[in-house]
Design goal:
The complex is a heterodimer of chains A (about 110) and B (about 110). Chain A has about 110 residues and is mostly beta strands. Helix content of chain A is about 0%, strand content about 50%. Chain A is globular, with a radius of gyration of 13 Å. In chain B, strand 7 and strand 8 form a beta hairpin. Classes of the chains: A mainly beta (about 110), B mainly beta (about 110). The interface between A and B is medium-sized, with 16 and 20 residues.
């Protein structure tokens, strides 16, 4: 069964460094999402992406964040200058045109020191 | 501030019983309502979504929506130990807003 994959599974970085989190959505999906979940907290929507542009973004998704679909398969989230409070699990999700179901990847656990 | 509230639990039910999970939301303009299951250390998995007032059934799961009361619930019939997880309520108007989740424990 097709699934969303994410790399790396864990990332440790120093405060102020740039990180890029990578996702490979399910191949025929057109809608892509990033969420984050701070340990023990709720899932928070960051951004949705369709037709090579951002559809919606939350107030968390400020100028430090960007998304890109650099080729036909990858979908990336970049954090330009990481802060301690960016430490969280970051989930990528994708869905096709016809269904409401978003399929989540396994997540990347980001730790900012 | 748009909020989605859930009782954090844990909600403990015996195997075979009905588990009832509740969620309230603050944004009266919300249009879509979702229930996700999240096992510890795993990613969320969609169980059901509902748009209209009333009940929607899918196997052992029933979602209930009351927009006037800004309330959505999930019933799990014939609960199994494998249903033990955290259940997340999510609400969408233009953006998705999640509750913190209710931890369900099904006791064999």
């Amino acid at each position: 069964e097709p699934e969303v994959t994410q790399t790396p599974s864990h990332q440790v970085t120093q405060m102020g460094q740039e990180v890029i989190l990578r996702c490979v959505p399910i191949s025929n999906h057109l809608y892509f999402y990033w969420y984050r979940q701070i340990l023990g907290q709720k899932v928070e929507f960051l951004v949705s992406f369709y037709n090579n542009e951002i559809s919606e973004k939350s107030e968390i998704f400020d100028d430090q964040f960007s998304v890109e679909r650099p080729d036909g398969s990858n979908f990336t989230l970049k954090i330009r200058s990481t802060k301690l409070e960016d430490s969280a699990m970051y989930f990528c999700a994708s869905k096709d045109r016809t269904q409401e179901t978003q399929y989540f990847g396994p997540g990347t656990r980001l730790l900012v020191l | 501030q748009k909020e989605v509230e859930q009782n954090s639990g844990p909600l403990s039910v015996p195997e075979g019983a009905i588990a009832s999970l509740n969620c309230t939301y603050s944004d009266r303009g919300s249009q879509s309502f979702f229930w996700y299951r999240q096992y510890s250390g795993k990613s969320p998995e969609l169980i059901m979504f509902i748009y209209s007032n009333g009940d929607k059934e899918d196997g052992r799961f029933t979602a209930q929506l009351n927009k006037a009361s800004q309330y959505v619930s999930l019933l799990i019939r014939d609960s199994q130990p494998s249903d033990s997880a955290t259940y997340l309520c999510a609400v969408k108007r233009t953006l998705w807003v999640f509750g913190k989740g209710t931890r369900l424990s099904v006791i064999a």
